[in-house]
Amino acid sequence: MEWGKAIVVALLIAFILRSFIFATSIVEGESMEPTLEDGERVIFNKIVYLLDEPNRGDVVIIERPTKNYVKRIIGLPGETIEIKNNRLYINGDRYEQTFLSEMNLERTGNIGPVHIPEENYYVMGDNRAISKDSRNGLGFIEEDAIIGKSEVIIYPFSEWGVTR
Predict the structure, then answer these.
(1) Which of 87, 91, 113, 148 fits as disulfide partner to 46, beta carbons 3.0 to 4.6 Å?
(2) Which entry of 25, 46, 71, 150 is annotated as an active-site residue?
(3) Is domain 22-162 given the CATH code 2.10.109.10 in the classification?
(4) Could you report the per-residue pLDDT of 23-75, keeping only the tens digit for each?
């Protein structure tokens, strides 16, 4: 009887954690390389944005009707972004994208200027040449479509670590 209670409590705790706090997602495609690679499994934090706002640079999970996307937040609500000569400018000031390789910086192209509406975000994949993102299909991302922040790569085990 004691074992039965312990198992039920453990299952209940696991269900609550999985449903409301943490979940896993599998990265599909190469749009976030080299940060995240195709087939990696990540744990994402579902509660973080109930307590705080998404920040520039966060790797987030975006919920869409047909599938979820993993992208990086580039522009925040109310900002104006522009990419000239592969360099990002936010409200006219240059922003260093330290998370990108030089090769991916050179593949960004020119964009904008684009004004981001309130309660919306502008996202891009780290592999700019092939990413479907706010530039070419996803558009602005409403805040309630962001369902979590990628925290940890858990598979394959050789890639175990914190998402940057």
Answers:
(1) 148
(2) 71
(3) yes
(4) 777 788 888 888 878 888 888 888 888 788 899 999 999 988 888 889 999 99
